[in-house]
Amino acid sequence: MRFIDETKMEFQIMNTPFPHTVIDGFLKTSVLPDILQEMEQLTPNKSYYFGNQEIERNKYAFKSGFDIYLTNLFKELNSDEFIDILERKTGITGIIRNNLELEGAGVHKVYNGGFLCMHTDFEAYYDKQYGLLDRRLNLLLYMNPEWSYKGGELCLFDKTSETIVSKVAPLLNRCVIFLTPGNIHGHPMPLELPQGVSRQSITTYYYTHNTTGLNINNGIIQPVKWYHDIKDLE
Q1: What counts of helices (H) and strands (E) characterise the chain?
Q2: Cβ atoms of 94 and 196 closer than 8 Å
Q3: Rounded to an integer, what distance in angstroms lies between the CA atom of residue 78 and that of residue 206?
Q4: Would the pTM of this model clear 0.85, i.e. be above it?
């Protein structure tokens, strides 16, 4: 693969508090400067979404207008070769591949004071090409050089102990992959960032065909659910 470092793909799925993996050095170091430069060009005025609500604040999302490196990175994240690895590692089969138009993929930037409330993601959506799709995996790739700021850790919530039990700092070239349905996550602590600095991530979500009209547990398909009372107090 041109962008992804294949040597880092021998990862293990950790099951606490829910199935996920953290991969440092996900991309080859040679491509990082070009990708970072292209991300710098994604200024707030070019975003398609601005989060300024109780659930998330000072967040800008981008899903188009990418230059060649970002475009080709998204192609690789949706390629046969990479999705074959995901299926082998997670046991999920039939992941939709080679399609950059599915819901949710893009670049996210969160600025000073921003946060993302703890939540579970929507479990399915109707795609005009494929019909009903189940959302199975989230991939988050952090692109933050010299991150040493307060807030911004991805928090993973354990339903059994009802506490945040794992926090992942959004360090440069760190990738987090986790099973989506029903798993509570977010970064609820407001960021303390200098002017012009943002918490940057590249996101891709992976889907499979839904043929039953029910969720993967044969229950009612759930929308996004927000947990305003779950806070990162540390």
Answers
A1: 3, 12
A2: no
A3: 9
A4: yes
Domain boundary assignment for the chain: 28-227
| CA–CA distance, 175 with 27 (Å, rounded to integer) | 9
Q: In the chain, which ranges are E strands?
A: 20-24, 49-52, 56-62, 106-120, 124-127, 131-142, 154-158, 163-168, 174-179, 185-187, 199-209, 225-227
Alpha helices, H only, the chain:
32-40, 68-77, 80-90
The answer for residues whose C-beta is within 8 angstroms of residue 124's C-beta and 6 or more apart is: 132, 133, 134, 135, 210, 215, 221
Q: Which residue(s) pair with 178 in the sheet?
A: 20, 138
Give me the architecture of the 28-227 domain, per CATH: Sandwich (2.60)
User: Could you read off the pLDDT of 166-214 as tens digits, one per residue?
Assistant: 999 999 999 999 999 999 999 999 999 999 899 999 999 999 999 999 9
